[in-house]
Amino acid sequence: MRCPWAEGQAYFHPYHDHEWGVPLFDDRLIFEHLTLEAFQAGLSWLIVLRKREAFRAAFADFDPVRVAAFGDDDITRLRADPGIVRNVQKIRAAIANARAFCAVQQEAGSFAAWIWSFVEGRPVQNAWQAQSDVPPVSPLAERVSAELKRRGFAFVGPTIVYAHLQATGLINDHLVSCPRHAELAAIVPDCEQRWRGLRKS
Questions:
Q1: What distance in Å separates the CA atoms of residue 108 and residue 198, rounded to the nearest whole number?
Q2: DSSP per residue over 23-86, as a string?
Q3: Alpha-carbon separation of residue 128 from 157, 172, 181 (angstroms)
């Protein structure tokens, strides 16, 4: 049985079954999630997920280097795009975040190497029995949020960051009754190995 949040909306099934909680080490995919989660602030994830393809087209397939180079003309273009969330603060934040993201890449070799260092390459394995047990934030999310803010990222409060860590697999928050919990727990050693490889490269 899937996690309850996904059972109630069929549109969530592929996302839950194949994406949510899968450990990501690809910087472009990580930047995509970070950007979409920032746009979700104050909205439902379903709204953003349904606009995902439009977001990809509007934001250069979430290539952080290309988004970091966006200027005023791009902001005007994005504000006129009906396919995305046209909140100018979030648009500006996405561009600023791309620049901060690239700075982390320059410093650490990759953003993945940097963010996975918070858990030393080993995804946190929670064991929630019910959806109501899952917290909206955690000490880990608070630490990552504070460091992202220090580095100039916006729309990265602890709640948004917790959602990011869940989505990108640094935290396994599938309920123990969900088959995905055990499936993702089984690949923890592979995650550690991939992180070590990133640190050496």
A1: 9
A2: ----HHHHHHHHHHHHHHTTS-HHHHHHTHHHHHHHTGGG-HHHHHT--HHHHHHHHT-TTS--
A3: 23, 10, 10
Kindly report, residue by residue over 181-191, the tens digit of the pLDDT.
Answer: 999 999 999 99
Q: What is the CATH number of domain 4-200?
A: 1.10.340.30
Cα 168 to Cα 171: distance, rounded to the nearest angstrom: 8
How many Cβ atoms sit within 10 Å of the Cβ of residue 53?
Answer: 9
Q: Per-residue pLDDT tens for 119-171?
A: 999 999 999 999 999 999 999 999 999 999 999 999 999 999 999 999 999 99
- Parallel/antiparallel/unpaired status of strands 171-172 and 124-125: parallel
144's CB contacts (< 8 A; 6+ apart) are 115, 118, 161, 165
Catalytic positions are: 15, 37, 45
Alpha-carbon distances, residue 3 vs 17, 48, 50, 98, 113 (angstroms): 10, 20, 20, 32, 29
| Structural domain spans, the chain | 4-200
- Put simply, whether the predicted model's pTM sits higher than 0.70 gets the answer yes
